[in-house]
Amino acid sequence: MVAVVPRSILDALPVDIALTDLQTHWARERQEVRIFCEGWLHAFNVIEQAGRRPDLLSMCDWQGQVLEFGCSSGLMAAACKEMGSTVSWTGIDLDLDSLKRACASVDLCLQADITQTLPLSKKFKFDRMVCGDVLEHLPYPWRFLSSIRQWIKPEGFLVASFPNVGH
Predict the structure, then answer these.
(1) What is the pLDDT of residues 64-87, one digit of tens each?
(2) Pairwise CA distance, residues 97 & 79, whole Å
């Protein structure tokens, strides 16, 4: 499943809502979100290209400041820029070797464990935040999502994908 959700809708979510209840909640509240649940969106068998994420890049316009959690070697940033998007891409990853490779495409690389305090000033605001196949690895994804709201611009988007919606 992939969800593209404006920050204003994220701010209105009850803190205790279950992932399985999101679609019903958004329908009841008549909130417009984009959810894609149609089969595999990216090929897991093409490992060297999997991080480029053309599936996510096609789901909204890419502009301004982007923050990607779990950026790995920066392939999504590279693909976005190759498409002609004028973005400033910040990538966060725990793996230093991946970040060294990401520096070729990512404008700012930060090594951090996203389950801990993030090294970002509250002054930073992003137009797009990406959690591509990351949230299912976190012990408390709702807590993480709640904590990152402060860095999404009011008109910004969170782009999140889950390879197994059961997570």
Answers:
(1) 999 999 999 999 999 999 999 999
(2) 20
